[in-house]
Amino acid sequence: MSYNQRVIRKLLDLLFPRYCVSCHTSGDYFCLNCFSQIQFLKTQYCPYCQNMSVDGSTHLQCQKRLGLDGLISVAFYHGPIQSLVKSLKYGRIKDLEGTIKQLLARFLVDEEDLFLAQSIVVSVPLHFFKKNFRGFNQAQILGQAVTQALDLEFKPDVLIRQRFTTSQTGLKKRERSENIAGAFVINPKVGSIVGKNIVLVDDVWTTGATIKECSKVLKQAGAANVWALTLARDEKKMV
């Protein structure tokens, strides 16, 4: 960060002070106490049977031709992480990008070997209506952070959300799959992804319906491997 950027940052902090997204104390978007309460995942899980998988790989018996090859989630979706995601999605605090980058970088230091070499990072897209309303796509912010942490190529526009879907919140597993079916297509303006390894990034893994639908579209377009990376996962949905 340059001298001018540091000065501008200090002025902005004076005019618009930061508050912890969890406990609301002033100082930063995560106070030290709340950060210490984040439950980072020490074990990963197969994206299909939800049983433990040492590195997040899809179990051999669970593999699908157009399915995910693995899943990595940073932390469980409760407490400070839940507050962070909600602030990002609904509070529209785009300035959280720096906090998320630090969080991901710290976690991914020990997880780098789990990702395929020379992968392309792709974010789950928002419908243009939702993106225009929020002003940004939270998954794209996460994708940028992953790109910097793992030194990978970022292609945020590989997928297009071609139709508007109702919120997945409150829907059952089957309803989520039906709601999101056919919602994504490959952007014809991007280059070929045939034979490419993809890291697909989103904010929260609940039932995985959205990410699995994206994986299907990417595999149909010729992607060799598709891994998912989420900031959080909902432990209530684990079997």
Strand content: 15-25%
CATH fold description of the largest domain: Rossmann fold
Average pLDDT across residues? 81
Give the low-confidence spans: none
What value does the Rg take, in angstroms?
A: 18 Å
3D architecture notes:
The model has no long low-confidence stretch (mean pLDDT about 80). The chain folds into two domains: about 1-35, no CATH class; about 45-235, Rossmann fold. The chain has helices at about 5-15, 30-35, 80-90, 95-110, 130-135, 140-150, 175-180, 210-220; strands at about 45, 50-55, 70-75, 120-125, 155, 160, 185, 195-205, 225-235. Helices cover about 35% and strands about 15% of the residues. By secondary structure, it is α/β, with parallel strands linked by helices. The protein is built from eight helices and nine strands. Strands 3-9-8-4-5 form a five-stranded parallel sheet. Strands 1-2 form a two-stranded antiparallel sheet. A two-stranded antiparallel sheet has the order 6-7.
